Structure formats: C-alpha cells, structure tokens
Amino acid sequence: MKIFYVKRIFLCILFLVSVLALAQNKSERELILIDNDWRFSFGHLYDTEKDFKHAEGYFSYLTKTGFGDGPAAKDFDDRAWRKLDLPHDWAVEQEFSESGSFSHGFKTSGKGFPEKSIGWYRKKITIPETDKGKIISIKFDGVFRNSKVFFNGYYLGTEQSGYNGFEYDVSAYVNYGGENTIVVRADASMEEGWFYEGAGIYRHVYLQKTNPIHVAANGTYITSEITNTTAEITAEVSIENKGNYKGSVEIIQTVFDASNQQIAGVSENVNAPEFYKTDKYTSKLQVNNPLLWDIDSPNLYRLVTQIKQNEKIIDNYETSFGIRTIKFDSEKGFFLNGKPVKLKGTNNHQDHAGIGTALPDEIQYYRIKKLKEMGSNAYRCSHHPPTPELLKACDELGMLVINETRLMGINDYHLNDLKRMMERDRNHPSIFCWSVGNEEWNIEGNIVGERVTNVMQDFAKSIDPTRPVTVGISSGFKSGISSVVEIMGYNYLGNGDIDAHRNQFKNQPGMGTEEGSTFATRGIYFTDDAKHYQSAYDRKPRPTFYSIEEGWKFYAERPYLAGMFIWTGFDYRGEPTPYGWPSVTSYFGMMDVCGFPKDNVFYLKSWWGTQPVLHIMPHWNWSGMEGKEMDVWVHSNCDEVQLFLNKKSLGKKKMELNSHLEWKVKYMPGTLEAIGYKNGKKVLTEIQKTTEKAQNIKLSIDKENIPNSKVLVVTAEVTDKNGLHIPTSNEEITFSIKGGKILGVGNGDPASLEKDQFIDAVSLVQITNFQEQKGLTADLPQEFQNYPENDWKTAFRDRDYKNQAPSYVYKGEFDLKNNSALNKVSFFYKKIGVEAVVFINGNKINPSSEDSQKYILDSSILKEGKNTIHIAATPLQKIKDWDVLNIDPGIIQVITPAESWKRKLFNGYAQIIIQKEESADEVVLSAFAKGLKTGILKK
Ligand code: GAL
Predict the structure, then answer these.
(1) Greatest CA span in the chain, whole angstroms?
(2) Residue nearest to atom 2 of ligand 1 (CA)
C-alpha cells in the first residue's frame, strides 16, 4: 500500500499524473441525466384494452424474453402520447373530488381511479457503437410506484417501493449505434403512506455507462475517526467485475477539500473480483486539521475513487462526505463534534404547492433554507427514504437528518429496503440517525415489536455501525419497541408518560420524534368551521395533544431529551385533520404548503434562532369589527416588549423564556406597534398597520431562491397605494410568462380546490367500427367515392393474405366531445397499407410536412360527435407465413389548450413556481387582475 501526503513533493507529482489521467478518461464513467423528452399516457389498472393491450400476447414478457407487448414493445407507436419532462407527478395534475383519497389530498388519481392509476412512460435514446463493451445501465432515483421497466421490449424488473432508487443493467439488450427504447409502467393504485405520495416518475432518471470493472452502485462507504487534529478516514469501496478480466487493478483514493485542493491520497494494488462478483477493499487516509461538518459550517470533502487497470484509469467515482462526530448521551442529549446540540427539528413529507412530489432540485434547497431560517436544525424524513437531492441540500446547508425506512419487518421486503436506503445514504454527514419505523400500532407495544426492532436494529448496525437507530412510538411508552430501541422516539407528550419511561430506562437516550400536530391556517385569526379555517394562535389542538409552546418547553427543560421534531415544518397534501373534504391539505405545518410562514414560525424563530425577533399577530385590517376585543400576541426573544395602539401605550410586559406575550386590544384602525427591549435598550420595532384599499399586484422572488437558479419561487401579493402588503386580499390573479414556463401555482389555502397546474389536455380517441371493402384496382381514389353501404365487412377478418385484393377501402368512426377551433386534432396513422389516401368526413387530407404518417385535422372538416375516416390503401404483403401485419389504423389525438394560469391570493399571498428556458436571457412573468395595476417580474 502506498500512502502519500500533500506536503511531499514527489507524491504531488504522482497526484498530478493521476489527475491528468482522470481528466483524459472521464468518459469511462458517464452519468447522463435523461429527464427530458419522455412520452406519457395513462393505461388502465385492469382493462387490458385500455392498457394498450399490454400483457395480452400469447407469449408475455414473463414467458419469453424480449416479449414486452403493447407499450412495452420497442416499436410501439407513441407519437400521439403527451410529451413531458421529468420529474413528473400525474396526481397533482388532476382535479379534486370528494371520492378521492383523504390521506392523499382528494386528487382524482391512484386508489379508486383505475383509469388514472397506471402511467406509461416511454423514451428513446441513442447509444453509440463506441459504447460496446461498456456496462450500460438505467438508473432511477424513484418511481411511485410498483414500476415495471422494459428496455427494447426486454423486461428488466419490478420495483415495488415508491421511494427506493434502483438501476438495471441493459448492456445485453442495447442496439449499439442506434435507437433504444426505455419504457416504464408505474402503478400508483396502492398507497404506501397515509399522506400524499404523488404518482409517476417523480425523481431523476440517468443513463449510466461504466467499464465492466467499476465501483458498484452506492459502492463507497466513508467513515472517520478524529484524534486531536487529525481525522483518519476509512474508505471502503465495493468493486464489481462484470467482465472476464483476471488480474490486478489499482485502487486510488484521493480526498479533495471544498476548494478542490487534494489533501490526502492512497493507492493500492488488489486482485480484481472474479466474473460477476463484487469485492470490498478498504483504504485508510489521513486528513490533517479537518474542517468539520457542522450545522453552521457544513464543510464537505470529496473522495475520488479511481480504478486503474494496465496503467489506464477505468473508473472514476465521486463521493461527497463530511468529517464530524455524533453522540447521544442518555443524560445530556445529543452532541455534534463534542458540543451539545438541542435538536430543533421538523417532520416533513416531500410535496410542495403546485408541483406535488415532482420537486425540481432547487425546491429542495428552498425548503431546507426556509426551515433553517425558522431556526430549525434537524429534519425527519417522515416516513420513507427521501430524494437524494434533499440529502444533498441538507449536507450543503447544514441540516441534521433522521432518515427513515417505510415499513417494519424482518423479511427481504423490509430489510432489503432498509439496506438499500442505508447504502445509498450513509455517506451523508447530515444523517445522524436511522429510523427503522414509525407508529407501528400493531407491534409497538408487544413482543413482536421487540423482536422486529431487535432484528432491524442489529441489521442496521451491520451496514452502518456509526449511527444510532430510533423508532417513532405512539401508543404508550411502556413495553414492546420502547424497551429495546436504541434511541427512544417519543411521538407526542400526550401519548404516554415520558418521564416515567425515562426513569425506567435511564441508559436509553430519547428524543421527541413527533410533537405538535397543531392546527393553524395561515393568516386566519378566528376559527371558522364552516370555511374549514383554524385560527393561527398556538393553542392546544386536542385533549391529548399540546401546543408548540407547551411541547417545546417540555423538551427544552429536559437535558436528557435530545430535542423534538414538530409535526410538521410545512403543510402537505392529505390528512386535512380536523376537517375532511373539501379541505385537501394538512393544517399541521409551521408554514403552509408554499412555505409562507404561519405565526408559529416567529415563536420558533424567537427560541430556536439566534437573531432578535419581534412579531405581532394578528394583522390590523378588521374593518367592521371596530370596538371588538382582539387577542394580540407578540412572539419575541426580547426581554421586554411594549405595545402601542395609535401611539398609546398598552403596557410593557416581561418575556419569559420560551414563551410569548398577550394583550387584549379593542380594535380600532391605525397602527399597532411593538417595541422590543434587551437589557433595557430598544432593539426592535414592529408594526401592524391598517391598510388602504388594494391597488397594485406585486411580484417578488423569494429570498431563499438559489442565486442564478433556473427554477424560481415567486410570491404574488397585493399592496395599497402606500405599497403596504394587504393581508386580507383574496383576489384571483392571472399569469402569463415569456422565456420560461410555470410549473405550478399555490396559495396555502387548505380548502382551495383551484387547479395546481394549467396544462394542455392530450386525449386519445380510438377509431372504432373499422370495416373494409375491396377495391378493384391498385390505383387509389383521389376523390371521395360513394361506397356501397352493404359491402362493408369487419376489417381484416378472415383475410386471405395469399390472395389479397389490389386495394382496400377502410372505414371507421371516432367521437369528438366538442369541435372547438382551439383544439389541435391529429390523426396518427399506422401503416395498414403500402400506399394510403385518407379522407375525414369525405374530405381528402394530406399528410403533414413533419411526419408522412401524421394528418392534421382542421376543425372546419370535423364535427362534434361522430366523425368518419376512410383510408384507401394497397395492402401490405406477408413475406413469411408467420409474419404478423399491422391491422391497427392508428389513433386520433386531441390537444385541448389549457386556460391561462391563475390563482387566487389567500390572505395576501400566492406562489408561482417558474422555470427559465435554458436558452432565454430573461424570463418575464406578468400578473393581472381586474381593477389592479399589473405586476411584472423580470429575471
Ligand atoms: C402521527 C403520524 C403522522 C401523522 C400525524 C398527524 O401519528 O405519525 O404521520 O399522521 O400523526 O397527527
């Protein structure tokens, strides 16, 4: 083994050589994002006719290899399918309905909607001849759910989980030097969670190319031991050999710091694994004076793993990692790098306003920044493995993470999921704890729970001994899982006696994995059950649940509890407790689904954050309520706060730790002002002012956006003539955009049934009652003829292929729901003859200029209801007896253009998520509403 340090010059040269080699051989491993240009269509859960006849064939894809049929077949004609880019969530695109799922936010897709539960995706890619000999794989970060994947008609496998990443080696099936087809059939008919989960390919997809000898998928594991000023890094790498090479390879491990300086390296000659085997190799490296990964300074390093064979670099694999220590102490709580850190956490699901689960990477950063801004330092991925980019954002921004697997059990289904999550994620420094389950009511309090936890816990340790394991427990903290779990996860104070449990298990550290579940609607200060609005004052929501303040005080006062995770940071779709339809999102969030803060955010900022805070609630626009006594609350971390109404003092009050202040104030328009004092000195002033009437639409880019990002989160609001934000405005705003597109709109109203997205509707209309007549000559008619009515018979039935007529005329019908001139209607013809002439309602149609088998049908020749199509064609001939000739004439596609994007403001705000076009210099978003001055945003 050779070890080299940066200070030694000769070894520096060695580094340079290897880095140069690295640059030259970059093509040895390629990871190509293939999110763009997919085709999509709904299939059907059980009606194979509507599922494009998939799996109807005499031989199925399970009986004979390569026999993927229907859309799974390589040559399936998908020209009429909708074009889209990933990430995609088809659930969020649907309407809401009372018959939808409560837990999934009442969208008309998935469970209970067989025609909206199967999504087919198809994509064509070219793979050059020069890739022969490489291992080609398709890598999915996650598909919801139960996905079957085909490549050139070959079935690759089924992934049940909607949350695991997976990849398939397709090297053997590739058409080198030509076109290849990837097909995914996602089946979202079952729910894995009791919260909104979206549907479809909602995470990234990659094409990956490697040498036969390569770092295996998720094949690195980096741990570190810190002694004094040095970190000893253990870099374990799994290398897979999918080739016949026998002999030695060199493994070069190099550490780079955040400024790309090489700071440590080691190389070693080893025997390559045998054919189709994976072997593990471990190297030790030393990093002097490491910059530790911390919440405030999330320092990261990069390990570059290279494999060298016969003096040539054949693989180059990068792993981001951090150096830090973590420790739970049953007396003193959690320690990061030896320093106590109280966990100020939130639970979150992964959907967002307007876009469902299809979050562009930028939105992950946006959300984590919002949580940090609130003073939060920890995030629990409830209740499933997250998107890789979420963890990347947590690593880079400094947010601790509990990573959670979906289901408890000791079988392959459960343990394999856990293993894959851990192997994928164990290099992220942000992850400080694995959670192997949540509220498994059936087993929580009994011996089965104990047994299952013991297995899962030990199994987790065998994959990553460096992090502890927890389970979120809710039904009493007395026996079962709570007796054996390493870190006790208390779900809610009201669910048991935390102190009593702790007294019994003094050596078991603990944290509140869920606390809160309070109800609040942003900007609402009087509960209105008829409207499904919950007031935003932090009050005890239900007899056995506690307010955020009560919860935080409990955890803050107990050093042995490592901290708490609020249910939840953001509102999410589904679980609209305490209401039901027509509420479609939760009320639990500290922020709404867009990330607009509810007032509790300022309570948390006061006691979780580090900056001085002063916040008055409610707003001061209560026209018609003059003289009514209002509850005025102030959230602040000042020592004292004085409140004034129209310059008249309402008294100065002392703030208690982790508390808030209250006044009763008779409403009178004007200015409510708070002054915050620290050590007797004025430090902050805050006002709530009665506004004038609405005048302008204001658009602004949220400050949590990533600089120069292509995806922008825009806030729409309305201001009065003085530019004051109007907290009660609920106007509907219409948007238009140039140089980009809108991805989704939202406003945080849990009871809004407005559309999240305005996208063109693509519908496919079948040609039915397809009949034929023989033609006398091979000359095809150029004018529509009157064909004898009695001569029509079912097309292609009993066709004698050895004695076909010189030509045939076919007739079919298709139904149009309407014949709006705005619709774009096309006939995608599939060859049923050598030559063909097409007539629609008796009018001859010429093929389009872009595609000789596509006919654009103008509304002037179409009608609402039944339309007829005639195709005169010279027949296709069989070459071999067993040839199967196409008898499907094709399909009619109707594109109904979407209406303009629009959204009502909800208590003053709406959010628009936009994506800048790659090539555009500028994106311009305009916002209109009757009677208001147009808002324009240029970026
Ligand atoms: C918990 C559960 C969460 C959520 C929450 C709502 O019991 O773990 O997923 O359902 O209740 O209060």
Answers:
(1) 105
(2) 439
- Whether residue 615 is contained in a domain is answered as no
591 and 450 part of one domain: yes
- Residue 614 covered by a domain: no
pTM for this model (two decimals): 0.95
User: What's the pLDDT tens digit per position in 362-407?
Assistant: 999 999 999 999 999 999 999 999 999 999 999 999 999 999 999 9
Verify that 242 and 115 share a domain, yes or no: no
349 and 313 in a single domain? The answer is no
Burial of 816 (0-12, 13-18, 19+ CB in 10 A): buried
Tell me which residue range forms the domain holding 766: 762-893
Are 190 and 338 contained in the same domain? no
Q: Are residues 878 and 903 in the same domain?
A: no
Q: Mean pLDDT over all residues of the chain?
A: 95
CATH at 817? 2.60.120.260
* Closest ligand 1 atom to 567 CA: 5
DSSP annotation string for 223-291: EEEEETTEEEEEEEEEEEE-S---SEEEEEEEEE-TTS-EEEEEEEEEEPPPTTEEEEEEEEEEEES--
SS (H, E, C) 644-658: EECCEEEEEEECCCC
Picking from 184, 210, 236, the residue at the C-terminal end of a domain is: 210
CA–centroid distance, 494 to ligand 1, in Å, is 13
Binning pLDDT at 50, 70 and 90, where does residue 935 land?
very high
* 31-71 residue pLDDT tens: 999 999 999 999 999 999 999 999 998 999 999 999 999 99
> Residue 728 sits in a domain of what CATH number?
2.60.40.10
Strands 793-794 and 768-775: antiparallel
Q: Which of 154, 175, 210 is the last residue of a domain?
A: 210
Percent helix, strand and coil across the chain, each to the nearest 5? 15, 40, 45
How far, in Å, from the CA of 375 to the mean position of ligand 1?
23
Same-domain status, 432 and 567? yes
Token pair, residue 489, equals 């996860």
Q: Determine the atom of ligand 1 nearest the C-alpha atom of 586.
A: 6
The encoded tokens of residue 862 equal: 């179409």
pLDDT digits (tens, 9 = 90+) for 411-433: 999 999 999 999 999 999 999 99
Helix (H, G, I), strand (E, B) or coil at 372: helix
Do 742 and 672 share a domain, yes or no?
no
Ligand 1 pocket (Cβ < 6 Å) reads: 194, 382, 438-439, 474, 491, 514, 517, 567, 575
* CA-proximal residue: ligand 1, atom 7 (nearest): 439
Q: Could you tell me the CA-to-CA distances from 61 to 184, 249, 252, 304, 918 in Å, in that order?
A: 14, 39, 42, 40, 39
For residue 296, tell me if it sits in a domain.
Answer: no
- Residues annotated as catalytic (active site), given as ranges: 439, 514
Phi, then psi, of 21 in degrees rounded to 5: -60, -40
Question: In total, how many domains does the chain have?
Answer: 6
- How much is the pLDDT for 25? 43
Same-domain status, 400 and 500: yes
Angle at 44 between CA 40 and CA 50, to 5 degrees: 90
Ligand 1: which of 102, 438, 439 to mutate, judged by most atoms within 8 Å of the beta carbon?
439
Residue-wise pLDDT tens digits, 717-751: 999 999 999 999 999 999 999 999 999 999 999 99
* Nearest protein CA to atom 8 of ligand 1, as residue: 439
Report how far ligand 1's centroid is from the alpha carbon of 336 (Å). 28
Which residues are within 8 A (CB) of 10 and not within 5 positions of it... i.e. 6 or more apart? none
Q: Enumerate long-range contacts of 678-682, CB under 8 Å, 24 or more apart.
A: 678/612, 678/638, 678/639, 679/639, 680/639
pLDDT at 707: 80
Torsion of CA 83, 88, 91, 96, to 10 degrees: -80
Residue 613 lies in a domain: no
Q: How far is the CA of 196 from the centre of ligand 1 (A)?
A: 13
Tell how far the Cα of 811 is from the centroid of ligand 1, in angstroms.
58
